[in-house]
Specification:
The chain has two helices and four strands, in the order H-E-E-E-H-E. Helix content is 29%, strand content 16%. It is an alpha+beta fold. The protein is rod-shaped. The chain has one domain. The structure holds zinc ion.
Amino acid sequence: MRRLLAALTLCISLLFTVALPIPAQQDKAAQQDPKTQTVYVTRTGKKYHRDGCRYLSLSKIPISLKDAKAKGYTACKVCHPPD
Ligand SMILES: [Zn+2]
């Protein structure tokens, strides 16, 4: 039983080591961080864009890079957003 507890403690501490560096909240100010970087999608397109891309003239919906990828958006070939 004590060995199980030790293994469990190790698992939990490992989990924390892995989980902690990932910021949980999406802060628009932290655009330098690739994990929280904001990109823009359009209402109809399936690409995500950098701010100022010409494809954003019709609609411009801010979304985090992570969410954009999770929703299946791919990087625009015109403005080359980060991937
Ligand atoms: Zn673009």
